[in-house]
Design a protein that fits this description.
1218 residues, ATP hydrolysis activity, 5 domains, ATPase-coupled intramembrane lipid transporter activity, alpha+beta, Calcium-transporting ATPase, cytoplasmic transduction domain A, 45% helix, 41 helices, P_typ_ATPase_HD_dom
Length: 1218
């Protein structure tokens, strides 16, 4: 009954939503009063993530299947074949359609069964619910809104709950939100002081309260509500009092809560939406190709519709047209033509391959499950994280990417923060050398000492400076500022300590790695934060005395208010009452935000600190400014009234809190700044070099300052000294002067004018120098706002697309998405976005392909992505290996599918030319049904899974091969036309050669002549042998599976035909009672013409293919042809892995002498590399046999460019000089 009521409720809400009717803005819940809550008809707590039910599976599944154009087309064909004018038995078309639809629906059923099983497991999980005066065990699915439940330690919350009390005396509990956002750090939750005493069933039974809160929504981090008791006192609620479904209780014995939202109205369920359905560019092209084939089919039918009534005459007495003309009345040529058009339309339905889509689905699905997800090369053992393909629709699109949009922090860098340097009182501290400094020194040819970690090193802390460590900071001139700085680090945060309260044993759970690093730094400086209660923080301060001894002072800071960080505020503040009864506001945040809020007086370190910030940014460090102020008690109390009103508001609470924070966060005193290093991930520079060589343009979109971003760009090889850099900066002198002296409108006009001037100049220079050098563009967030305006965006896009690298600094999450969409929609090229944080989700979803990195910023990026990997370097394998192979395979099998179907169907067309286009079928019904399903489909799947032109190592050693996908070489109009024309040509050979060989004079040893069905069987045999052998010629990488299934398909045909021809007409397996096929094959094998046909026909058909392939490899080899030749010749003398290792480790010559030495070494030993274009056919990097291949090609044509359109052809792989 409950489930029925829920269904009705959902239907009502759905109707209201569609009609535009708005429900109430708040929800009113009666705590522990189920009778009153039933009237509201809230949903129960059962969930369903399945796609189908038992009732809806067939109607909904069939509807989805027939949304595909090809499936709907074959449904029409199957229906038409039921009528009398159909030339084939209905089973001929119905059988394959049922099989294809059945396989697709079986896959859907298996996947949905798993969802149902998972749902049942979740819904039946036990939980303690307060009923009839005591806690009783019940299932999650039976929980109702307003009920009180008890959750034990390490259990998951079954619904969204209002925290009433916990095992902690202060009503505090700890929650892990990993299932919600992927973050493993614990979050602190605390109930209202008014409910902390409700801990027993007896006290809870007497609890009668009303909860008024927001309606169900998908905002995970916000909640507004009020709780009122019978005394009419209203108590505001915030996210601090809410426990969300899917989170886990940790380090707390138990909690008690009241249910707010249930089932599909919980926040986690309202966030769980299916991954957006995406289709690859090849699939879109495939739809157009099917329309073209449909047009060709119609053309063939029109020929027959005209030819049939022309041919029909009453003098053709053997047709008995006078007795029963039926639809074929010679006197009514219009009807005859129309009927014949439909007849031939059914007969030629094999123009479009029915099994193409299901074969593609199987190939993509198996490739994902068995190759991408289980690839050890893209498995991260440190985090035990394999690659995860969340969709199989975009496999081949990975092989065509031309633009990559990347976040920096956590994507290019490790997101493992280490406190590295600081500036306090205008004095910089920290002697360490960052990775960026080392990269700059290396670029300038300077030597730096190795990085040796000292005794103070700890995860999150890599600071070295004797002036500060060991309590020496008290000797500094600005020791008072240092004291406040250290206290700020120890107090201004939301970190939760775990473990024993001892410096060596404690562990910090922080919302971000930056915050944890700052608290660890405070501990190492002698300000040890170890305890957090509901409203206080306890810090042990180790202050050196004058005699050098260290004295520990335990200080408890009362936390009066926390003004939390968000992407809009870019800062956080803590207002605390110190042990000496002072009210202090500590604030940390982005430099531009903090500097706007500094007092005009008393900030003598302002300019010097700004210089230090610039220096830290140039070293690639992440910076935060730190400031504080003492608040008079009266001012604080007056402000707190406004703050309390804002946090109890049910409308626009977040905005009101921000507005109130603006009031108090003013007139700050600058203390200094922190500088944290986020090291590059392993392999990032080499990965970017490889992608650049593959003609993949990389745009880095980061929130860092320009100096930091530029230096990170150099360190990871995104920016190089060879590039001409265009820097579009909105911080130049004229803009800053305008902002200081003019009104907002005037300064915006100056900003727009200056930015557009810089953009136009850069674009003009790029056009002028585009043939002689590469470019890089660097632009800051303020300038980007101007560049993204509709009237300016086209110029910015064109300039960016002319650059090999683009770095956008100080960008917001929305700007990341806007930049991605600008290129995606403005250029007909495939885009990919990669990121690791929640701020990257919009960017990831905006690109053709989204890749999430499972890092330290949670799993929201992964959950929004199409593919997930653990490290940026794995993107190389994903694109250059799996993507390129998938594109090659899918392109090949689609072309082959159309080739084999055109060949097969046109033999039927040629036959109809000899029978007056009567619509007489050439082949037996079983032949036609089994052609795509049994005799030619399995080898295609094997090719789609295993074929590769070059192996993994060579694909990465020669990234230029990737450009074939970008240029769409293998799925171009020319490539598809070649397949189609080949099918047309071979259909002529396959039909007419057996016809000529099987002349009526040809008889077997019993005197039987070659008739219709014998000729059809002969032609069919030739077709099966030809198309399977042609597939073998198309294979680049032969395995045992290729041989078993290609040649096995031919053998299977003969096994089938010998059994089928032995069956007595009318028995099971025969579609009619005629003796069409009975014993045909047994007669054929005794005729010389049959053996002549099945041997000669494939040879004649395939000889041109063999010759063309040979001539192409000899005179005009493609890039992968030469690498294949290279591999083949080195197979016996040297392993490919060793060969590639030599290529990677060999340096490029810097002078003619070094080049000559390398040439001599190459000629005397095995191959080391290949450069496509080299003067006079020689190369300093190419093996001799490759040079020979180049000379052969030059005999035929002077090749000005690479096969894939590059101006320099394929260069030897770059050396990893690191």
């Amino acid at each position: 009954m409950v489930k029925k009521r829920n269904s009705i409720t959902r239907l009502k809400k759905s109707i209201k939503g569609k009609m535009g009717m708005e429900g109430p803005q708040t929800r009113k819940i009666f705590v522990n009063d189920s009778t009153k809550n039933e009237a509201a008809e809230y949903l129960d707590n059962s969930i369903s993530t399945s796609k189908y039910t038992v009732v809806s599976f067939f109607p909904k599944g069939l509807y989805e299947q027939f949304q595909r154009v090809a499936n709907f087309y074959f449904l029409i064909i199957a229906i038409l074949s039921l009528f009398e004018f159909s030339p084939v038995h209905p089973v001929t078309n119905v059988g394959p359609l049922v099989m294809v639809i059945g396989i697709s629906m079986l896959k859907e059923a298996v996947e949905d069964t798993k969802r149902h099983k998972k749902d049942n497991e979740v819904n039946s999980t036990p939980v303690l619910v307060l009923r009839d005066g005591d806690f009783v065990e019940t299932e999650w699915a039976d929980i109702q809104v307003g009920e009180i439940i008890k959750v034990l330690d390490k259990s998951f919350f079954p619904a969204d709950l209002l925290l009433i009390s916990s095992s902690d005396a202060d009503g505090v509990c700890y929650v892990e939100t990993m299932n919600l956002d992927g973050e493993t750090n614990l979050k602190i939750k605390k109930c209202l002081d008014n409910t902390v005493s409700f801990t027993t069933p007896h006290s809870l039974n007497s609890m009668h309260a009303t909860l008024e809160c927001e309606t169900p929504n998908n905002f995970l981090y916000t909640f507004t509500g009020n709780l009122s008791f019978q005394d009419n006192m209203v108590h505001s609620l915030s996210p601090m009092q809410v426990l969300l479904r899917g989170c886990q209780l940790r380090n707390t014995e138990w909690v008690i809560g009241s249910v707010i939202f249930t089932g599909h109205e919980t926040k986690v369920m309202m966030n769980s939406k299916a991954t957006p359905s995406k289709r690859s560019a090849i699939e879109h092209q495939l739809d157009k190709l099917i329309i073209i084939l449909f047009f060709l089919q119609c053309c063939a039918c029109v020929v027959g519709a005209i030819g049939s009534p022309t041919f029909l005459e009453r003098k053709l007495w053997y047709l008995a047209l006078d007795e029963n003309p039926g639809f074929f009345d010679p006197d009514d040529k219009a009807v005859t033509g129309m009927v014949n058009f439909v007849t031939l339309f059914i007969l030629y339905s094999t123009f479009i391959p029915i099994s193409l889509y299901v074969s593609m689905e199987m190939i993509k699905f198996l490739s994902v499950v068995y190759f991408i997800n289980k690839d050890r090369a893209i498995y991260d053992p440190l985090s035990d994280t394999p690659a995860l393909a969340r969709t199989s629709n975009l496999n081949e699109e990975l092989g065509q990417v031309q633009y990559v949009f990347s976040d920096k922090t956590g994507t290019l860098t490790q997101n493992l923060m280490e406190f590295f340097k600081m500036s306090v009182g205008g004095v910089p501290y920290g002697d360490g050398i960052t990775e960026i400094q080392r990269a700059i020194a290396k670029r300038e040819g300077k030597a730096l000492p190795d990085d040796i970690k000292d005794e103070n090193y700890e995860t999150g802390f890599n600071f070295k400076d004797k002036r500060i460590m060991g309590g020496n900071w008290v000797k500094e001139e600005h020791s008072e500022e240092l004291l406040q700085f250290f206290r700020l680090l120890a107090v201004c945060h939301t970190v939760i300590p775990e473990g024993d309260p001892e410096p060596d044993k404690i562990h910090y759970q922080a919302a971000s790695p930056d915050e944890a690093a700052l608290v660890v730094a405070a501990k190492k400086f002698g300000f040890f934060f170890h305890t957090r209660t509901t409203n206080s923080i306890i810090v042990t301060e180790s202050i050196p005395n004058a005699d050098g001894t260290i004295e520990n002072h335990e200080r408890e800071y009362e936390v009066l208010a926390i003004l939390e960080f968000n992407s809009k505020r870019k800062r956080m503040s803590a207002i605390v009452r110190t042990p000496d009864d002072k009210v202090i506001l500590y604030c940390k945040g982005a430099d531009n935000v903090i500097y706007e809020r500094l007092s005009k007086d008393g900030n003598e370190f302002r300019e010097k600190s700004m210089e230090d910030l610039g220096a830290f940014g140039s070293d690639g460090l992440r910076t935060l400014c730190c400031a504080y102020k003492e608040i008079p008690r009266a001012t604080y109390e007056e402000w707190f009234v406004q703050f309390d009103a804002a946090r109890t508001s049910l409308v626009n609470r977040e905005q009101k809190l921000d507005d109130v924070a603006e009031i108090i966060e003013v007139d700050l005193r600058l203390i200094g700044c922190t500088a944290i290093e986020d090291k590059l991930q392993e392999g990032v520079p080499r990965s970017i070099e490889l992608m650049a060589e593959a003609n993949i343009n990389i745009w880095v979109l980061t929130g860092d300052k320009m100096e930091t971003a530029i230096n990170i760009g150099y360190a990871c090889s995104l920016l190089t000294n060879e590039q001409r850099k265009f820097v579009i900066d909105a911080e130049n002198e004229r803009i800053l002067e305008a902002e200081a002296t003019m009104n907002k409108q005037g300064s915006l006009e100056i900003l727009n004018e200056e930015v557009m001037t810089q953009l136009e100049k850069a674009y003009d220079d790029a056009k002028l120098l585009s043939e002689s050098m590469k470019f890089a563009l660097v632009i800051d967030g303020k300038a980007l706002q101007v560049a993204l305006q509709p009237e300016n965006s086209n110029l910015f896009r064109k300039l960016g697309m002319m650059c090999a690298a683009v770095v956008c600094c100080r960008v917001s999450p929305l700007q990341k998405a806007d930049v991605t969409l600008l290129v995606k929609e403005g250029a007909s090229m495939i885009t990919l976005s990669i990121g690791d944080g929640a701020n990257d989700v919009s960017m990831i979803q905006s690109a053709h392909i989204g890749v999430g990195i499972s890092g330290n910023e949670g799993m929201q990026a992964v959950m929004a992505s199409d593919f997930a990997i653990a490290q940026f370097r794995f993107l190389v394998d994903l694109l250059l290996v799996h993507g390129r192979w998938s594109y090659l395979r899918i392109s090949k099998i689609i072309g082959y599918f159309f080739y084999k179907n055109i060949l097969f169907t046109l033999t039927q067309f040629w036959f109809n030319c000899f029978n007056g286009f009567s619509g007489q079928r050439f082949y037996d019904d079983w032949y036609q049904s089994a052609y795509n399903v049994l005799f030619t489909s399995v080898p295609v799947i094997v090719i789609g899974l295993f074929d590769q032109d070059v192996n993994r190592a060579m694909g990465k050693a020669f990234p230029q091969l990737y450009m074939a996908g970008q240029k769409n070489i293998y799925f171009s109009a020319r490539a598809l036309a070649t397949w189609i024309l080949t099918g047309m040509f071979q259909s002529v050979i396959c039909f007419f050669l057996p016809v000529l060989a099987g002349h009526p004079a040809s008889v077997n040893e019993d005197g039987h002549m070659i008739g219709h069905w014998a000729l059809a069987t002969t032609v069919y045999s030739c077709v099966i042998i030809t198309v399977n052998t042609r597939l073998a010629l198309a294979v680049s990488f032969h395995t045992i599976f290729h041989h078993v299934f290609i040649w096995g398909s031919i053998l299977f045909w003969y096994l089938f035909i010998f059994i089928y021809c032995a069956m007595t007409p009318g028995t099971a397996g025969s579609l009619d009672s005629s003796d069409n096929i009975y014993y045909v094959i047994y007669y054929l094998v005794t005729t010389p013409s049959y053996w002549f046909s099945i041997i000669l026909t494939p040879v004649v058909c395939l000889l041109p293919d063999i010759m063309i392939q040979g001539m192409e490899r000899w005179f005009k080899p493609l890039d992968h042809h030469i690498i294949q030749e290279w591999n083949a010749k080195n197979k016996q003398t040297e392993g490919v892995d060793k060969l590639v290792e030599k290529i990677k480790n060999r340096g490029r010559s810097k002078s003619q002498i070094q080049g000559q030495d390398l040439l001599d070494e190459v000629r005397s030993r095995s191959h080391t590399g290949y450069a496509f274009e080299s003067p006079q056919g020689t190369s300093y990097y190419a093996p001799q046999e490759v040079v020979d291949a180049q000379k052969r090609a030059s005999v035929f044509v002077l090749r000005k460019r690479s096969n894939y359109g590059g101006s320099q052809g394929m260069a030897v792989p770059k050396i990893n000089e690191e």
